[in-house]
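Please, structure for the following, as tokens.
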Amino acid sequence: MLGVLLGSATQLFSYKIIWIFVATLILGILLRLRAGRIFLVLFILLGAIYFHVFDYFQKHPTPVFDQKIKFHATVEKVDPKINGQELTVKTDSPEIKLKIETFRYPAFNYGDYIKVEGKISKSKSEFINGVVYKPSIKLIESGRGWLIKKYLLKIRNDFENNLKKVLPYNQAVFLSGLTVGGRSEFSKELEEQFRQSGTLHLVALSGFNILIIVNYLGAFFLLFVSRRRAIFLTCFSIILFVLMTGAEASIIRAAIMGFIVILAEQSGRLFNIRNAITTAALIMVLFNPKVLVFDLGFQLSFLALMGIVYLKPILEGYLPKLLKKKLWLKDEILTTVSAEAVVLPVLFLKLGYASPWGIISNPLIALFIPLTMGLGFLTGAAGFISYYLSLPLGWLVNILLTYELAVIKVTSMLGGYF
């Protein structure tokens, strides 16, 4: 991973490989190239070269910007918005990835093959080649794409619709974010409240959410099968869940670490959080080395976890013994402070803003998130059977959601972000 970081740093230079060799040679000299460290330098060199080899084969032709053109593409992802929808598509030839912001209707689905006419603008994302605003779109064919993913996305959409039937709009989209990571239909006002209160991470599925889901799934499967089969079914369900929710960096990291925990339990080995973090990061970097430097979600996910693992014990050591025993929400407060102390500087540098008020809002909400998610999953699942079965569950979860949104609204009024 150090090599991939070095490769990312030399991306803008000419004669990249020469710079990589020079940098690794300097590093080797600093380490004095003892026998055990030669392999470290070798793997740093290989990591840097791997980044540029990957980057070379991932290079796509530069699209024609700011000129009206026609092209054919397949829809890979659909994010509904309040006043429209955002499509992620892959064009035919040349094969490039674009985002299309269009009207709410007609609605498009994963696997649709479309003909587009419009202007491509430059994208700020390293992973998207361009953006097309309000183009002319014609559906040519439906049903392309991976069949399993198509059905998983349909289940997710139906699940979210079940929540909307029994809950007020803001509560429904918040619960969708907690359970399946859907926040695309947030109103600007609601998203701003989450941003100002430092709680936007709640609707970006993370290790905390995955741990809750693993616990619920494990307990459910144990009612019907043996422990070994329950673990297998839980792992398989998590894989399907990751695919259904879009496979973002934070949830992939959480899923990998969850599998490592399960593997440790089954093999009778001790779970080492440092090794698990490193392994999860390495697997993701091997699949796509660009996430290390260019994916903010990847960085925030790992930094927050490292803050909790390494900074929290240090902060806890400074608490007086009396406070350790008597302080209400001590664990939640320390967890929030540890994560945000590491994440806030990165947010400020990358996005130009950061909110310190999560130190207040997150501990007041964190205690109720497991119960909220549990009732939320039951509410959405009951909706597949009967609206009237999901209605009383919706009433119960609405109490928790209303409280949590009230905390978010109040803390967002304390001063916003800086």
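The radius of gyration is 23 Å. Residues 176 and 182 are 5 Å apart (CA to CA).
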